[in-house]
Amino acid sequence: MTGAHGNFREERNVSDRVYIENGSMVLFNEEYFMRQALLCAEKAAAAGEVPVGAVAVRDGRIIARAWNQVEQLKDATAHAEVLLISALSSLTGDWRLDGIDLYVTKEPCAMCAGAMVNSRIRRVVFGMGDPRSGCAGSALDITGFPGMLHQVEVTGGILEQDCKELMRSFFRSVRKQKNEG
């Protein structure tokens, strides 16, 4: 079978998927996908953007990736999640993104959570919560608001410390540059 990750065969079919790829076992689970989102967040940080990265997963495979590009695009809506949803709509040819899980390093804001609801994302998995402005259950719960036509399943805290450390490191660097400049 050929897929986004090359030639592989499924070893077992449980919540964690194990594949043999080029002679090595690869475990595709929530941590694997969050690590891929962290790689995207690192790209954002390297470009001077707030380090938020996201990947979209369908049928156990990553189908799209994005990271914050607010400063680069001079667009307040260029959050990783919104860019990813837009790319997914182009990729799938539909605004309805049923069956797609979105992995993101930080809990979505109101705009991103609303976009997930409106595009019918199946599930959002985030790394670090945001008690001040997170809208997947921390400050607000847009993803699970009963009055909406769709609710998004939510799982939080996957690789939370790694996600927090990347965010802390980025803002330490920003503060240091401000103090030196």
Count of DSSP H/I helices: 5
Side-by-side strand order of the widest sheet: 7-6-8-9-10
Based on helices, strands and strand pairing, what is the structural class? alpha+beta
Q: What oligomeric assembly is this protein in?
A: single chain
Round the mean pLDDT to the nearest integer and report it.
89
> What proportion of the residues form beta strands (DSSP E)?
25-35%
Give the strand tally. Answer: 10
* DSSP helix fraction: 25-40%
Sheet bearing the most strands, described?
Answer: 5 strands, mixed
Order of helices and strands: EEEEEHEEHHEHEEH
Which spans have pLDDT < 50 for at least 5 consecutive residues?
Answer: 1-14
Q: Shape from CA axes?
A: globular
Task: State the end-to-end CA separation.
Answer: 54 Å
Rg measurement, Å? 17 Å
Structure report:
There is one protein chain. The chain is of the alpha+beta class and 181 residues long. It has helices spanning 30-46, 70-73, 80-92, 110-119, 160-180, and strands at residues 2-3, 6-7, 9-13, 17-21, 24-28, 53-58, 61-67, 101-106, 123-128, 153-156. The protein has a five-stranded mixed β-sheet with strand order 7-6-8-9-10. It has a three-stranded antiparallel β-sheet with strand order 3-4-5. α1 runs parallel beside α5. It is globular and about 50 Å long. The termini are far apart. Residues 1-14 have low confidence and may be disordered.
